Amino acid sequence: MKKIDFIKTTLFAYKGIYDETVEENSIKSFQSAISLHYGLFLDVQMTKDGVVVIYSNDDLSDFNVKDALIDTSYEELCNICSNKIITLEEGLKYINNTPVIINIKYDGKTHLINEKIAAILEKNKENFMITSENAINLKWFNNFQPEFIIGEICSKNKCYKHPLKNFFARNTIKTDFKIIDIKKYTIETIKYLKKHNVLIGSIIDSEEDYLTYKDYFDSLINDTKIILPVILNEENNQ
Q1: CATH fold of 5-47+98-236, please?
Q2: Phi then psi for 77, rounded to 5 degrees?
Q3: What average pLDDT values come out for the chain (238 residues) when binned by 10 residues?
Q4: Whether the model pTM is above 0.70
């Protein structure tokens, strides 16, 4: 039996806690979140030569480059971003026992990134959760790593290379929790989903959002800078 009760007592910081002086998805942003007793929500992708990195955008426009990350080697990536994009393996060295949701943003040969993530997480599966909008990724973990905690991102996007495979996978996957966009679902739908699932709301980016939605979800994913995480953390520890 998987232990998932900790989800209900953990708030998750998307990309860590960052501001004008701390880069998102950096070691410092992770440490800032951990110091406030947050869990982490991290997007991961894979470079052309098979290195799993923590990065949220599909392309490298943040660095004034139009290339897709999936078409860029890790060495090229380091040169482009001056080593500001870190690998999953490097990032996890600083996370210790913090709960982490690893969101797989990859629409290539999914089994390759899944195998690499599973190998990286092999020594400590209890603190990590796997999620993706691509149900084919989740189906792979159901089949080959069933002990992992699996969450489905309920999305209305239809941008996959294999939409038919994704459709069948989505209808057969087994999940332990679901993540939904708070802005795309009505309160009535959210209430219904919560009756049948451990439900995480994404993404809270203001105190107003938090106060509106905190009672409708088991947990929330927060994407903001400094003030709101302190507010949420104080309430979480009462």
Answers
A1: TIM Barrel (3.20.20)
A2: -60, -45
A3: 87 90 92 91 95 92 89 94 91 90 83 94 82 92 95 72 69 94 92 94 86 91 62 50
A4: yes
